[in-house]
Amino acid sequence: MRTVRASPGRGHPPTYALAPLPGEPPVATWRLDHTHVPGRTSRFEEHAHDFPGIAYFDTSGGTLRTNRRSWPIEAGDLYVIGPGDVMGPMDPDDLVEAHGWGVFFTADALGPDVPGAYLAWRTHPLLFPFVRGGSTDALRLRVPEPDRSGWAMRLDALHEELTGRRDGYREAAPAHLVLLLVEVSRLASDVVGDLRLNREPLLAEVFAVIEERYPEPLSLRDVATAVNISPGHLTSTVRRRTGRTVQEWITERRMVQARRLLTTTELPIRNIGRLVGFPDASYFARTFGRIHGVSPAAWRAG
What's 154's DSSP letter? Predict the structure, then answer.
């Protein structure tokens, strides 16, 4: 499996594409430790991918950098890396005490019913965790301790299929990938629980309010009142901890549900807007287009 530079950056980190060799499954695994920084033996700079992936660590130690943010690696950390998320810079020494796996793939890996078109990865149900509007920072989740041995076995099995190349590996590798993505989707659906595991009670409360009330009119002041702190303090805290504002998170939650309804139902677009908190159909269409670069109708058609 090769990665190729897809864009020169032009003031932004360079973006890379995944380029399977003829006959290869469009999925790749990389060890993540101080001897296996992907594709390099020395420092690599900030970059992004135009394909999704995950990074899972089964031991603690070291540092992972995403969008100029440094994360101390802990056992059970799972990073969901969407297309466009900025990774690095990183030195091999950043991972000197860590051990984990990176798994990267293209939409084709999910089967013949998912064409490799520009919007394909955005419309498949198992890829919702990789779609986060305009975010450029990987999503950090936590695999519960009782489940970590199962994760290690699944990743080892996927890697073995890709490297062993036994008969049937072209069918087996995508099947292992689908099982991994099911587990990622289950973890990502419990954002509030993950925040509590990461000892972020205030953020857990904020996201619980957003989850419960996003279909209704909901403002920063409403959320601040619900969690009993001032809007100014809430704004600075959420921005410092997540890099985004409360209003951006409200909009993102609405966009997640809008994408799901566009993909899985035939509801009129104006009805979908109302169901996700946009009573004005034109405002919904403008907001969706600003975040995704295409209209709701184009997203549904893609």
Answer: H
